[in-house]
Write a structure and sequence with these properties.
Length: 77
Amino acid sequence: MGRLLLILAIVIAVVWLLRRALAGPRKQASGESPGAAGGDLVSCAHCGVNLPKTEARSAGGRYYCSEEHWRAGPREG
């Protein structure tokens, strides 16, 4: 009976470890928001959409979501 419980405990531990490994990385428990890892968000000067600063194009201290909006410039009004 003791061996059966030991084998059962080992099987449960292996299954738990495999599921945990296959689940991928989880959020850190440091309390950071999910967007904090991607950097600061900026707003497109043309359309106003929010996007990570690392993905934005910048010109003249303004940020744009695409090359088309960068060429068009900021929206007036």
